[in-house]
Amino acid sequence: MNRSQLTAALLVCSVASLSAVHAAPIVSTTVQPPSRAASTPGVSPDYQRGLEGLARGDSQAARLAFQAALEQQPGNVDAMLGLAEVAFTAKNLDEAGRWIDRAVKAGPRSSAAQASLGRYLSLKGKGADAETALKKAAKLDPAALRPRIDLGDLLLSRGQAAQAMPLYREALSINP
Predict the structure, then answer these.
(1) H and E: helices and strands count for the chain
(2) Total-model pTM
(3) Contacts of 115 by beta carbon, 8 Å cutoff, 6+ apart
(4) 159's torsion region: left (phi>0), alpha (psi -120 to 50) or beta?
(5) Per-residue pLDDT tens for 18-39?
(6) What percent of the residues of the chain are helix, what percent strand, and what percent coil, each to the nearest 5?
(7) Residues 54, 86: contact at Cβ < 8 Å?
(8) Contact 163, 155 (CB under 8 A)
(9) CA-CA distance, 118 to 115, in Å (whole number)?
(10) Could you report the per-residue pLDDT of 108-156, keeping only the tens digit for each?
């Protein structure tokens, strides 16, 4: 498959993904899979249990674990984003937004927090603000794949395919 065929295939996949945007998680709490988190120094065991709870679909266990991680480290951005994910899976978008807001305030230079803010704002219909947050997330972490794809999808949904394509190409160069 040549590069233009690959780009066309990616565009088709991205268009198809737009219909699933409301079903996708609002935050990416899995900075690393739970199995790897166990062996990573510095990862809170409570945060790890929260990820495992999310993976099992056990929102209550995830919530309790993320809250415990926050009690130990009140500025734990990842735990805040975990609580946002728990709220989102419970279809409580307002609570998810409050946790994301707290995460952004606690970690203004966190790419994950900015990307979550961008997805949240996009779901709330605030496209311009979502675009700003997603661009900031991509700038904060040049290796972050998700903000580029989300920004590309946002632009594509506005009919701005020419602006979206470079973002998809970037995503392909990050994760071929």
Answers:
(1) 10, 0
(2) 0.76
(3) 27, 28, 133, 134, 137, 144, 146, 147, 150
(4) left
(5) 333 333 455 544 333 333 333 3
(6) 70, 0, 30
(7) yes
(8) yes
(9) 5
(10) 999 999 999 999 999 999 999 999 999 999 999 999 999 999 999 999 9
Cα distance between the two ends of the chain: 13
Output phi, psi for 42, to 5 deg: 90, -5
Report how far residue 115's alpha carbon sits from residue 161's, in angstroms, rounded to the nearest whole number: 21
Q: Is the dihedral angle over the CA atoms 28, 30, 32, 33 positive or is it negative?
A: negative
Whether 71 has a pLDDT exceeding 50, the answer reads yes
Q: Which two structure tokens, joined as six digits, stand for 93?
A: 């978008």
Token pair 């899979």 in the structure block, residue: 33
DSSP letters along 47-100, please?
Answer: HHHHHHHHHHT-HHHHHHHHHHHHHH-TT-HHHHHHHHHHHHHTT-HHHHHHHH
Cα–Cα distance list, 122 to 34, 39, 119, 132 (Å): 28, 35, 5, 11
Spatial separation of the C-alpha atoms in residues 44 and 94, rounded to whole Å: 27
* Contact call for residues 153 and 164 (beta carbons, < 8 A): yes
Contact assessment for residue 111 and residue 94, using Cβ atoms and an 8 Å cutoff = no
